[in-house]
Structures are given as structure tokens and as C-alpha cells.
């Protein structure tokens, strides 16, 4: 009779690769990580890496371990592992909104790099940027058991005297001016905007008009400051700021106003979605791009090269921002020294067909 269908055991049931049978009358013990390791012919450490999704396992070995887990009915006890090792292999991500390109792509990059290190992420959205909501998010993360937290707050919040993060929590912050208190990672917003304005000035435009992001946003503030500073340093007139909210619709509304400015031959939009709205407004008013008006965006979203015309823009390296966030947080989790301060990721111009030299006699003044 087969050992799988009755009480008798055959020689195959006691092969060296199988876990030893339990003595008669004794309660059967659970399958251990060692049982899986013996059946798969690997170390217990390799089984642990496979169970946590660690990427540094050879594919054939991973398949062998997974097959052994399936055959033995093994299920990793992550809660017990966390209690034993004092870690949960989970990173919390607190953020105000996922609707913006920068936030969504940063979260995607964080998830990718966390997974590469064998960590999962838990996402906690904050309804509004207030002290109570931020602390509420941290309370939820404590209940969900995370090893550290990445805070993505593009609005003025952490610099307010009344808003602080709970003490003792391992934290990295994205897009903030809180570098004197926390480890902060961000794209070099100021230099990216400076590159955009200089590109337009070097083409021969006398000044550059600006469609800014919303008030209260660090990214919008840095890009606007860079636009203004670069014009002032070049001795150029600083036009009035048009204000948007990152959406293409707000860019379209700003573009309608700018299309009526005959002197406007160059526009720097604070993100690509608003630049898309500007392009539509200019087209509807019969002003060609780049013949009459040059337009530069910011972000280099995947569709930027498919705009009409393909958009000149500033590229942010979201993958590198995510990598540095995870790297700095894991150093804190591992009790390595991480000093507060800002880590800036370089940006660069991507020149396409939405910018050109102004037509003679059409330079902005």
C-alpha cells in the first residue's frame, strides 16, 4: 500500500531527501524551513531568501525550492520571523497624493528597489497635510508593522513648527525642505528649471514666460525661483507668473492667456501636463510651436515625445530618487550612520521639436 494513501511506508517514503516520518501516536509537527532545504538540496538561508522574494537567487534554484515548498505544503511564517529577527521586511510609504507624475513614479521606483532588497511596501495616503493626519498615518503604519517609513510630501508641512514626525521612527523624506532634521532625497528641481530657462535664452528669446505649479508645493516653488533667478542674472525682464495646478486643463487656461500676449515667444511650464495644455491653447489661437512660441516642460513623462510637436523638457530620474530613498532608509534600519541633509539627484534637458530660435522681429521683450 502506498505511504500517501494508507498507513504503511515504502522505501520511497524514507528517501534521504524526504523529511523523517513522525513516530506513531505522536502529533505530526509542522513542516520546517529545514525540511524544505533538505528536499530541495539547498541551505536554509536559500529557502529564506526565496520565501522573502530576494532577487539574488538563481532561477533554477528558486524553482527547485518553490517545488519543494509546494510538495511539502510549507508556508513561511513571516510574523514569527519578524518577531525572531526584529524586522518585518516592509517599508511604509506615506504620501498626500498619487495623482501627480512625480509622486506616482517615485512610489513605483521605491517599490521596485524595495523588492530588489527583499522588502515589500505598505502605502498609506494622507487625506490632508495636517499634523493629525500625518500622525494618524504613522499610527496605522505601526499597527501594520513596518521597519521604516518614506514620506512623500510635496506641500509645505514638515517645515512647519507645529508638524513633526514621531521620534524613534526610521524616516526618509522626499521633496521637502526638512533636511536639517531628516534625511531628504529629491531631484535637483532648481538646476533643472535653470537649464530650461537658459536653453530658451540661448536660442535667442529675450525673456521666458512661466506657467507655475500650485502654491505650497516645494517642487513648484523651486522651479519658479530658478526661473526668476536665471532671468534676473541674465538681466532680462521677469514677466508675471501664470499659475496652474499641475493639470493639463490648468495649463490650457494659462496658455489661453499667454496666447494673447504678442510679446510672448517662449514659455516654461512647470510640468509636462501643463505644457500639453499650453500647446493646445496656442494651437487654437493660431500660434505655431515652435515657429511663433517655444515651449519647455518638466518631468519628461513617457508620452512627452508623442506630443505635437514632441516636447522639449527636463528629465527627472525617478528611478534614482527611489533607489536613494530605499538605500538611505535601509542604512537607518541597519543602524548605520545617516546624517540629516538633502541628497539631490541630477536632472537634464531633453531637446525635441517644441523649441527653436525666435523668428526675426518676434523676440519677447
Automatic annotation (TrEMBL):
GO molecular function, one term: transcription cis-regulatory region binding
Pfam hit, one: LacI
Gene3D superfamilies membership: 3.40.50.2300, lambda repressor-like DNA-binding domains
UniProt keywords, alphabetically: DNA-binding, Transcription, Transcription regulation
Region (Disordered): 1-30
Location of the HTH lacI-type domain: 31-85
UniProt cross-references to InterPro entries, sorted A to Z: HTH_LacI, LacI/GalR-like_sensor, Lambda_DNA-bd_dom_sf, Peripla_BP_I
SMART domains for this protein: HTH_LACI
Name the UniProt record assigns to this protein: LacI family transcriptional regulator
Amino acid at each position: 500500500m502506498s505511504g500517501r494513501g494508507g498507513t504503511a511506508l515504502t522505501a520511497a517514503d524514507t528517501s534521504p531527501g524526504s523529511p523523517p516520518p513522525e513516530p506513531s501516536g505522536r502529533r505530526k509537527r509542522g513542516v520546517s524551513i529545514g525540511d524544505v532545504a533538505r528536499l530541495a538540496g539547498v541551505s536554509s538561508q536559500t529557502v529564506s531568501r526565496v520565501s522573502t522574494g530576494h532577487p539574488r537567487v538563481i532561477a533554477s534554484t528558486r524553482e527547485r525550492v518553490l517545488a519543494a515548498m509546494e510538495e511539502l505544503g510549507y508556508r513561511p511564517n513571516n510574523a514569527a520571523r519578524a518577531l525572531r529577527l526584529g524586522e518585518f521586511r516592509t517599508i511604509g510609504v506615506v504620501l498626500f497624493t498619487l495623482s501627480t507624475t512625480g509622486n506616482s513614479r517615485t512610489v513605483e521606483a521605491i517599490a521596485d528597489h524595495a523588492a530588489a532588497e527583499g522588502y515589500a511596501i505598505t502605502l498609506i495616503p494622507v487625506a490632508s497635510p495636517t499634523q493629525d493626519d500625518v500622525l494618524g498615518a504613522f499610527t496605522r503604519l505601526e499597527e501594520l508593522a513596518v521597519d521604516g517609513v518614506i514620506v512623500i510630501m510635496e506641500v509645505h508641512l514638515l517645515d512647519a513648527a507645529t508638524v513633526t514626525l514621531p521620534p524613534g521612527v526610521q524616516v526618509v523624506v522626499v521633496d521637502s525642505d526638512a533636511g536639517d532634521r531628516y534625511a531628504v532625497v529629491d531631484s535637483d528641481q532648481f538646476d533643472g528649471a535653470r537649464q530650461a530657462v537658459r536653453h530658451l535664452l540661448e536660442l535667442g528669446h529675450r525673456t521666458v514666460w512661466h506657467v507655475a505649479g500650485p502654491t505650497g508645493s516645494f517642487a513648484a516653488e523651486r522651479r519658479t525661483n530658478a526661473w526668476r533667478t536665471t532671468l534676473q542674472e541674465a538681466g532680462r525682464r521677469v514677466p508675471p507668473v501664470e499659475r496652474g495646478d499641475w493639470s493639463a486643463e490648468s495649463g490650457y487656461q494659462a496658455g489661453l492667456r499667454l496666447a494673447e500676449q504678442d510679446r510672448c515667444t517662449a514659455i516654461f511650464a512647470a510640468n509636462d501636463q501643463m505644457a500639453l495644455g499650453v500647446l493646445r491653447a496656442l494651437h487654437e489661437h493660431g500660434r505655431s510651436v515652435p515657429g511663433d512660441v517655444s515651449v519647455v516642460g518638466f518631468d519628461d513623462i513617457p508620452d512627452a515625445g508623442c506630443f505635437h510637436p514632441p516636447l522639449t523638457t527636463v528629465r527627472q530620474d525617478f528611478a534614482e530618487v527611489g533607489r536613494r530613498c530605499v538605500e538611505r532608509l535601509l542604512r537607518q534600519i541597519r543602524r548605520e550612520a545617516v546624517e540629516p541633509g538633502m541628497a539631490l539627484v541630477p536632472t537634464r534637458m531633453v531637446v525635441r521639436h517644441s523649441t527653436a530660435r525666435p523668428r526675426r522681429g518676434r523676440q519677447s521683450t
